[in-house]
Amino acid sequence: MIKQIRTIAFYTLLEAIRNRITWLIAVVVVAAIGFSGFLNELALTEKREIQLALMASFLRFSAVFLLATFVVTSLVREFNDKVLQLVLALPLTRGGYLLGKLVGFTLISMLFAILFGLLTSLLAPPLQSALWTVSLLFECWIIAAFSMLCVITFNQVMPALSSVLGFYLMARSITALELISHQPLLEKTLSNRIMSTMIDVLSAVLPHLDHFTRTEWLVYNLGSWNELLPLLGQSVIYLALLSGAALFDFYRKNL
Fold first, then answer.
1. What's the predicted TM-score (pTM) here?
2. Quick check: 212 and 136 in contact, CB under 8 A?
3. Domain segments of the chain: what residues?
């Protein structure tokens, strides 16, 4: 099983390199430098802070979007081109294939996180940049696992990618929605109570990605290694749950 996982992970990483994902990373880096530098020239005060905040936000979203797009399109192409049936005709278990893919996607996540983290280190303190990089890696792990689950569930690019982006936006904003729903000034109507309960349920089941990869770490030097421990715990839990759900759905499918 370990050898199978290692082999699938290697070829997944090789596929990303052959698809010129490094060129996309280079384009994102150039765009981040150019866009943040342009807005930096427009700012009157706190130019470095504004440039760093915009660059970090752009790099974070770009990493998530590019990773989700690669995971979805790669797996859907293998489903549609019957590559998966050919691979599973070999002495390879479905679990070995899926876990190998997940390991390969986590390696690609490391590529995004390290390169984008090195870029932020040009403007931010090295310790804060390292914290931001590790947190971005955790965030990408969750997105990769959820993207894989969506592909196995929907088998199509648009529904899967839309679900991933919806999941990401909801996980990023769930804390703010929860605070708004519990404002004492809100009228306690039945519809408001139902909405507040639904938001509480979502808050209990979704990862709080607004606590990950925080821009204020870079801008105001506020991060510490202790903040990574709960983020690591969330990442491990959701990675296990999403991988387990993907395996369950994958094994019950007739290919």
1. 0.90
2. yes
3. 2-251
